[in-house]
């Protein structure tokens, strides 16, 4: 399952817990110390740590939501044409 990560820099307090927990997904701005999102769709093998980063964020500035799996839907290139 893939997931979408969002950060709210207005809420971020710069604690850096996210960067320590998942450095391949989060970084900190060198100027203001606020969160920078390196990967909005992290690799599946990092999702548990991304969820931990959400829990550890003291400002509640990180959220993660499941992305729907891709399936053949009407109008998509994979779907058969309708007469």
Tell me what you see in this structure.
The radius of gyration is 16 Å and the shape is elongated. It is 18% helix and 19% strand. The protein has helices at 17-21, 47-56, and strands at 3-7, 26-28, 35-37, 62-66. The protein has 83 residues and is of the alpha+beta class. Residues 71-83 have low confidence and may be disordered. The protein is built from two helices and four strands, in the order E-H-E-E-H-E.
Mean pLDDT: 87
Radius of gyration: 16 Å
Name the shape in a single word.
elongated
What proportion strand?
Answer: 15-25%
- Cα distance, first to last residue? 33 Å
Query: Percent of residues in helical segments?
Result: 10-25%
Helical segment count = 2
What is the string of SSEs from the N terminus onward?
Answer: EHEEHE
Structural class: alpha+beta
DSSP, total strands: 4
Neighbour order of strands in the largest sheet? 1-4
Which SSEs are present, and which pair or pack?
Layout: E1 3-7, H1 17-21, E2 26-28, E3 35-37, H2 47-56, E4 62-66
Antiparallel strand pairs: 1-4, 2-3
Brief overview:
This protein has 83 residues and is α+β, with helices and mostly antiparallel strands. It is built from two helices and four strands; from the N terminus they run E-H-E-E-H-E. It has helices at 17-21, 47-56; strands at residues 3-7, 26-28, 35-37, 62-66.
């Amino acid at each position: 399952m893939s997931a979408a990560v969002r950060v709210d820099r207005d809420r971020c307090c710069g604690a850096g817990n996210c960067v320590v927990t998942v450095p391949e997904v989060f970084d900190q701005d060198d100027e203001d110390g606020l969160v920078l999102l390196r990967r909005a769709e992290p690799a599946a093998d990092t999702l548990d740590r991304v969820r931990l980063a959400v829990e550890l964020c003291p400002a509640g500035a990180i959220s993660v939501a499941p992305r729907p799996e891709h399936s053949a839907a009407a109008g998509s290139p994979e779907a058969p044409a309708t007469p």
